[in-house]
Amino acid sequence: MKRFIGFIKKEFYHIFRDKRSLFILFGMPIAQILLFGFAITNEINNVDIAVLDHSKDFETQKIINKLKSSPYFSIENQLDSEKEIESEFKKGKVKAVLIFEPNFSQNLVNKKAATIQTVTDATEPNVANTIANYTSAVVQNYQSQKNSSSGSPASVEVQSRMFYNPELKSVFNFVPGVMTVILMLVSAMMTSISITREKELGTMEILLVSPLKPFQVIIGKVFPYVFLSIINAVVILLLGYFVFKMPINGSLFLLLFESILFIISALSLGILISTISDSQQTAMMLSLMGLMLPVIILSGFIFPINSMPVPMQVISNIIPAKWFIIIVKAIMLKGVGIQYIWKETLVLIGMTLFFIALSIKKYKIRLE
Amino acid sequence: MNNQEIKPQSEFSSRVIDDAKEKIISVQNLTKKFGDFAAVDAISFDVYKGEIFGFLGANGAGKTTAMKMLIGISIPTAGEAQVAGFDVLTNAEMVKKNIGYMSQKFSLYDDLTVKENIVFFGGIYGLSRAEIKIKTAALVKELQIEAIINNLVGSLPLGWKQKLSFSVALLHEPKIVFLDEPTGGVDPITRRQFWEMIYTQAYKGTTIFVTTHYMDEAEYCDRVSIMVAGKIEALDTPKNLKKQFNVETMNDVFLKLARNIE
């Protein structure tokens, strides 16, 4: 036990004396969560749009006011002809133009139909898409209000309600995602680097010649990162809760338990990587290419798994991060207990045991 | 070169072993194969308590591989070896408790201070806090490192690191200390000082097993073995080897051996 404490102490010296690892450990999680939370977002806010109103009547004015009052748009200017649209787009400020057809109100009354055309600058396709959706939502909202007040035309209306994330806040998706990425990065990359560093410097050999057993060496190396990763998980949750108002509807205890489980699976992956790489650089590249990319791309963090091609969907099943993200979202947003996520938890436990067994086996081979 | 300046080897020959002749390392047909290639090919030799045993060979001759089997971090393909009275295959744990090891990289932690390194390595060999304190004080006095005890090891010159890692390898008072090319890359003066440390330790009764490819250093050993292509081709005192090959220096012994093999 005393040996173990001495070992841990030494490991913390390594971590706290190396500015790079300190930054990766504590700077990056905070920077990433703030970046993802604030900057990288699918929501639009205060987008500049222009209006080309061919009819300039009562109805169009009402719709324009409605758009103005929404937080999503600010109406930059009124255009006079179609020709101006392109020059506006080229200037770059205006992202979309709403065109009302001539005799808008009359058509609405007489033909029971009037058209608004949305022309968007699709150099940024996601933004363009979102703007188009938002404008039609605003218009539809106006229409339904109008219908209900006048009560005349009987039209079928679809009302959708968004459960668990009624405002469709993207941060609710990013907090679990970033937490997963960070835990994977800190746990797997940092441990694999710190183990290969000892190999590179030749100190691993000295440790193996000492009476310490190989598994003691590995546990000693890994333990500090378990501890630091848990701190990281808590920091990310606190940031999500207080800065981004992400709810934690389920049990905090269960959430931490699942996080520790995921951390251990990532750590065993880190050990696995360290057994097959001889230098810190190899370990880093393997962690980045072999772990980070799949975590970001295949876990459902950024790209929804359901819309992937089937082979990719199948592959995504072997990514521990996928299961962890499902679990975290279920606990935080739906507030479910273990009875709803025991399957995912079992998968994660199974994977963790598999990685541990594999890395122990590999580690022995390395000792020849 | 400077072997004349060093205490003449004959002075130590008498110190060695002749009355006791107690075997402390015993190797029989030790073999390590990587696939079809035998890096170590059925070597046999004994090392006696208290002697400085030079384990020589060109790069790639198999000396590091052989040594790794003796210190318990590589498993022999065939053959047997007893180190400090314990079998390396079946009782590696006891072997490890009784040996010290210093690798060619002077492997201390650069980002730990001198003192932290001593405490750490003392700790993993199971020394108590009080023992470590006594050992540290003795080391400070012996190496005169009072001023640098709280400096990071990374900031020390190579010669210092080498002396320190030798001392650290001796912290737990092992019966045998294995030195893997301990003088690689250091200047001749430091090398000489280092050999003085080795002699001091040998006087205290510690057996020294040292690999090197500096042939002048071979002259400082009580006995040397020369490995060529996985086999031990010669094993005797430097004096006898020179007589046997009818040459002036160990360097010539080595050259003759290597040429014969080719």
From TrEMBL, chain A:
List the transmembrane segments.
21-40, 171-195, 222-244, 250-273, 285-304, 340-360
Give the protein name, as stated in the record: Transport permease protein
Name where it's found: Cell membrane
The domain of life is: Bacteria
Species of origin reads: Flavobacterium weaverense
One Gene Ontology MF term? ABC-type transporter activity
Positions of the ABC transmembrane type-2 domain:
128-366
Give the InterPro entries listed for this entry.
ABC-2_transporter_component, ABC2_TM, ABC2_TM_bact-type, ABC_2_transport
Q: Which family is this protein grouped under?
A: Belongs to the ABC-2 integral membrane protein family.
This protein's UniProt keywords:
Cell membrane, Membrane, Transmembrane, Transmembrane helix, Transport
A cellular component term, taken from the record's GO annotations: ATP-binding cassette (ABC) transporter complex
Give the membrane topology, semicolon-separated if more than one: Multi-pass membrane protein
Automatic annotation (TrEMBL), chain B:
Would you say which domain of life the source belongs to?
Bacteria
Q: May I ask which residue range the UniProt record assigns to the signal sequence?
A: none
Task: Give start and end of each ABC transporter domain.
Answer: 25-254
User: Which GO terms of the molecular function aspect are on file?
Assistant: ATP binding; ATP hydrolysis activity
Matching entries from InterPro entries are given as: AAA+_ATPase (IPR003593), ABC_transporter-like_ATP-bd (IPR003439), P-loop_NTPase (IPR027417)
Recite the UniProt keywords alphabetically: ATP-binding, Nucleotide-binding
Tell me which Pfam families the record gives.
Answer: ABC_tran (PF00005)
**Name of the protein in question:** ABC-2 type transport system ATP-binding protein
- Species the sequence originates in: Flavobacterium weaverense
